[in-house]
Amino acid sequence: MTAIDPQQTPSRTPRFGVTLSLEAKILLVIFTLLAIWGIAIFTFGIPALLWPMKLIVPALIAMLFVLTWSM
């Protein structure tokens, strides 16, 4: 019986155990942005709805285009 040498055994870094594909990561980012935007609208009202549309709507369209293009 041989002893296990701790210097030769690879150290495992703790991970969450969930690996996500690129499409899943993109969808997670989209849903996170929508959730943050929803909280801002609930907190600040109509100004939070109108101003970020200039940035969020084109970004969402671009993300959906990239997502569907890669499928």
Total helices: the number is: 3
Decide which structural class fits the backbone.
Answer: mainly alpha
Tell me the distance between the termini.
51 Å
- The low-confidence parts are none
The radius of gyration over CA amounts to 21 Å
What does this entry look like structurally?
The protein is mainly alpha-helical. The chain has helices at residues 22-44, 46-50, 53-69. The longest helix is centred in the middle third of the chain and has 23 residues, at 22-44. The mean pLDDT is 77. The chain crosses the membrane at residues 26-45, 51-69. Keywords: Membrane, Transmembrane, Transmembrane helix.
Q: Can I get a quick summary?
A:
Helices cover 63% and strands 0% of the residues.
Essential attributes:
single chain; 71 residues; mainly alpha; 3 helices
Topology (SSEs and partners):
Layout: H1 22-44, H2 46-50, H3 53-69
Helix pairs in contact: 1-3
